[in-house]
UniProtKB/TrEMBL annotation, chains A, B, C, D:
InterPro entries: HotDog_dom_sf (IPR029069), PAAI_dom (IPR003736), Thioestr_dom (IPR006683)
PANTHER family registered for this protein in UniProt: 1,4-DIHYDROXY-2-NAPHTHOYL-COA THIOESTERASE 1, MEDIUM_LONG-CHAIN ACYL-COA THIOESTERASE YIGI
Domain Thioesterase: 52-122
EC number(s) per entry: 3.1.2.20
Protein name stated in the entry: Medium/long-chain acyl-CoA thioesterase YigI
The family this protein is said to belong to: Belongs to the YigI thioesterase family.
Amino acid sequence: MPTLLDADQTARVHASFDAQAFMRTLDARMTGLAAGQCELSMPIHAAFAQQHGFLHGAVVTALSDSAAGHAALSLMPPGSSVLAIEYKQNFFAPAVGDTLIARAEVVRSGKSVSVVTAKAFSIAKGVEKPVGLLVATMMTMPDAA
Amino acid sequence: MPTLLDADQTARVHASFDAQAFMRTLDARMTGLAAGQCELSMPIHAAFAQQHGFLHGAVVTALSDSAAGHAALSLMPPGSSVLAIEYKQNFFAPAVGDTLIARAEVVRSGKSVSVVTAKAFSIAKGVEKPVGLLVATMMTMPDAA
Amino acid sequence: MPTLLDADQTARVHASFDAQAFMRTLDARMTGLAAGQCELSMPIHAAFAQQHGFLHGAVVTALSDSAAGHAALSLMPPGSSVLAIEYKQNFFAPAVGDTLIARAEVVRSGKSVSVVTAKAFSIAKGVEKPVGLLVATMMTMPDAA
Amino acid sequence: MPTLLDADQTARVHASFDAQAFMRTLDARMTGLAAGQCELSMPIHAAFAQQHGFLHGAVVTALSDSAAGHAALSLMPPGSSVLAIEYKQNFFAPAVGDTLIARAEVVRSGKSVSVVTAKAFSIAKGVEKPVGLLVATMMTMPDAA
């Protein structure tokens, strides 16, 4: 069972997500949040396609990275922000359908370094299909005073 | 010295790039192309920012991935397209300034699997700064007949 | 619940593992096997240490990679062998204690490309501690006739 | 042109390498060192083979990782040691022949985080062949007082 965040922590994670202009450009929303877990969803839009008309892989990465970062941020102390120092993305299948979902989970939470996985799924006619796996290394950055 | 492509190969690589709607959305252009090498450039626009106002890391990945894919495609036989099966991105510094550039180079070209690196740079007031390194595994996909 | 392999498939996976001289050098044994899953164990020996006396990270990778490869092989048709084309390893903590375990699971099984994760744990005084996560891309290689 | 290290820095890097028992087990030697660069070599020995008799991929990773770590260490201040927090390895071809070489170079040197690439080559009958590329994230660890 996911552990719920308190109201302050929830507000801080949402504030960080809401401040990402690129997530608004993608029309992404936060559809799930718990301690060390975050789910983001976005419509699959033709403006973000690659050369065969499927969603560009880097958009799968964008949603997965943002989900991973906010999953990590949910475990960080107040006055911190999160920075991805690197990630690795595997692609399983093209993302086709109407919706892309990324579900992230912290697998190792350290004081300065955390490791987070994010699985991406596309939904077509109500059926979810796995499309990728991201593993990210996130750093805790103290906000400038 | 880079090896020049012939007119047909050049046209095929450009056609693939021009077909990526997401690259148009990012306002990216192909600014360099040779055998096994590709350079892409885009303006750094506020619509693609993360929570601190810097360019979102996944946009650095998007430009680097597309440069890497088209560098690989430049070495593939006619009737092929390119598919990224996975990549790894390291970030060196935030991308600040007015322009993002990705320069990709094939480091291992195989019949079905190629490995490509792409270095990303941001330009502020005419000064280039390295911002990331991507390593991608690309597959040669025969076009459906 | 893991799905059991039949006797032929079990024999083929064991034969591949037994043929890895490096696994014998590490004194590694296969301690678990099911469809798409494999567990390997080895004693933590001073001959494989890094500069601080902990087990060298690349040994964690070796056991994880071999577990991942044999998890993938367990799902491949007879007459195939498995080849890692790339992997990514994250380290969580130094491996200290007397035993290293790697538990691998196929997360995407394709005809030619599979993706496998492997979690590594060290055991000290009977207590397991996570020490790393590997994500590998494995190819199915038809054996030469 | 590589920048030479002074005698103290050279001694510190060698001391770290000499303290890695696993490198002795592999019979690896440091065959090149400069500021931000390190080359290691080892004989290709049957005890480290995989199931087809080629050198096990994780041994390629081991030599590459150690070369990368010592390349990073060469730029770190006295009183530091180096820790790989993650790496990604691509394989180009099986390592066959009599010698394996790993050549590492720091591509981004930061106060706490560095990024290093290492290319591996096998030598058969005097001919070098590229066998892999590793990209590693290294952290600077202050030695305990």
